[in-house]
Amino acid sequence: MADQQTAPISSLGLSAASELEGGIFSRVAVIGGGTMGQGLAHTVAQTGVEVILVERDEEAVERALAELSESLDHEINRWGMTASEKRAILARVKGATDLREAASAALVIEAIHEDLEAKITLFTKLDAICPQQTILVTNTASLSITEIAAGTQRGDRVIGMHFLNPVPKIPLVELVRGLGTSNDTFNKAKSFAEKQLGKTAVEVFEYPGGVTTRVIVAMINEAMYCVMEGVASQEGIDTAIRLGYNFPIGPLALADQIGLDQVSAWMESLFHELGDMKYRPCPLLRKLVRAGHLGRKTGRGFFHYDEQGNRLHAAPI
User: Fold this and answer.
1) Which residues span the domain enclosing 108?
2) What is the DSSP annotation of 75-136?
3) Same domain for 115 and 48?
4) pLDDT number for residue 307
5) pLDDT score recorded for residue 5
């Protein structure tokens, strides 16, 4: 994103101001065009809402839009949508490199990498750029909403909305309150999640990892230890958990889907915050991340994957 500075804007346009009153938004800015940012752009745009997708430079914007287009093509091939629906979604997504363009949206969602200092820096810039009424959302899975909000002068208007990947398919969003998040902001975020996006919203009070991340990484970590200690094969562990507990996917395949680097970052954050050994990343996870075997996105993690992301077989560990 371009490092832009501008004076605070005192008020929103009439349409944006009315959106804030009703909690229904016609334009949303998404900051970050990675996997989560693309998923958010897809999810929001398919409901008829205009999306401004902001990345750091033109190359990153073009890459994000191209990858979003490819993802939609995959849905067409699976009979999940039509070509006309794809065109309608892409027509509503506008790429941008100037962070100041986010000021035209009444709701801004941050979806950059899981780094506290980077998020605080971004929110400080957004606070200076966006009108005071604008709601600023972080999609963090493990970091403190209160710490992120501390970089702004609008702690009451900052909230966490933790979407899970793949965003268009997972029907849940965690609404995470920081210590200063107002009831008004919470209610508007809840309305956006439920009425516009069609998600089930769960209220979460700030605590490292919230609910979904805290619970799932402990299970994933234990599954990795089972592999490392030779308890069973990757396929055997995933089959046992998937069939034994009626899960749609096993913990190791899920880790590959999330991205092993992302899982490692979550575990490091929780281990640092809580000091609980159950969140200490398994040495096998560290080994795979160091080797660049990050899961489905690199073609290899605990399993091998083809170019379309389909699982092939267990990878040598």
Assistant:
1) 14-205
2) HHHTTSS-HHHHHHHHHTEEEES-GGGGGG-SEEEE---S-HHHHHHHHHHHHHHS-TT-EE
3) yes
4) 87
5) 40
Give the model's pLDDT for residue 14: 44
Say if CB 264 and CB 286 are below 8 A apart.
yes
Q: In this structure, what CATH number is given to the domain that contains residue 110?
A: 3.40.50.720
Query: Is residue 7 included in any domain, yes or no?
Result: no
Query: For the chain, which ranges sit under pLDDT 50?
Result: 2-11, 14
Task: State the pLDDT at residue 120.
Answer: 97
Pull the structure tokens for residue 157.
């208007």
Q: What pLDDT was estimated at residue 23? A: 64
Instruction: Let me know whether 239 and 167 are in one domain.
Output: no
Query: For residues 1 and 6, what is the distance between their CA atoms, to the nearest angstrom?
Result: 15
Question: Which single residue is written with the structure tokens 């009424």?
Answer: 133
CATH of the domain at 235: 1.10.1040.10
Quickly list DSSP for 215-234.
Answer: HHHHHHHHHHHHHHTTSS-H
DSSP, res 195 = I
